[in-house]
What does this fold into?
Amino acid sequence: MKIDYRTLHGHFSAILRKDGFAPPRDQVISSVFADNTFDGVFSHGINRFPRFIRDVRSGTIDPGASPTLINRSGSLEQWDGQQGPGMLNALHCTERSIEVAKESGIGCISLRNTNHWMRGGTYGWKAAESGLMFIGWTNTIPNMPPWPGSTPALGNNPFIMAIPRTNGHIVLDMAMSQYSYGKLEWYQRKGMQLPEYGGYNRENKLSKDPSEILDSERILPIGLWKGSAFSLVLDLTAAILAGGSTSRVIGSRETETDLSQVFIALDIERFMDATTRDQLIEETLRFNSMTNPEARYPGERTLKDRELHRKEGIEVPEEVWEEISRL
It folds into this structure.
């Protein structure tokens, strides 16, 4: 079934108000879920919305909580999310990183005691729209085995980098696993095999079957030992900067909460004007496409999905829409 953006946003907002989100918080959260869906990231858009509401109703997420400043030193700030909605906390910290960067060139904001931020790319796109470069990441529950182990002990800790560009920003949004759990669930729902190996099955064999990998909980780190190491240092750095929890501690909770996150914005126009920056980017992208016509840059698919959904509406599985309608 096809649904337009306005209908999707309004449906989300009505449910959120029923669950204690007063305006404008309901509107902001609805925009995050609707935008993620509009951009083709269903795993952290419409597919994730029912789980978010369940976390609110279970008490994991406090609808009225707002982040509080804990510590500040120059361009570094430390905030406590107070168990509030992860996307509202993350948007606040992104905006704060932009403000500090515009004042001093760089803004590094850390956040503890928060909930899932949904799509990490949301915050990269927001910074890029403000003309700033962005680096950010979050830790998660232990959901990925360290290489070459078989028991989950690391988070797949999504990492984001964004570079502003006049003709469409470059936004990298990747988990430390070859496929995120959200992407595995998307392929499973579609009844499709993965394009590449994503993990091991219970027989210790590499698999492209999302159901087998979800069952074994043995997702592959990107770059094998390199992704494993990258995950570890992201986890430790986030917890240290935020004075918060590591994946190990998060895994001891009853649900995924108490996350640590980092938001870094950089005012790059202090060193390179926008025209020169765009020329550098275009030359690089042109070189890549000339030598490898099938190559895509990070964020390119998002722009195409936006245009497709703007013209044709958003194709939503009926069972997902029915589940949301029952909330």
Notes: The domain at 67-176+225-273+301-313 is CATH 3.30.1370.60 (Ribosomal Protein S8; Chain: A, domain 1). The mean pLDDT is 96. The longest helix spans residues 86-104. The chain has twelve helices and eleven strands.
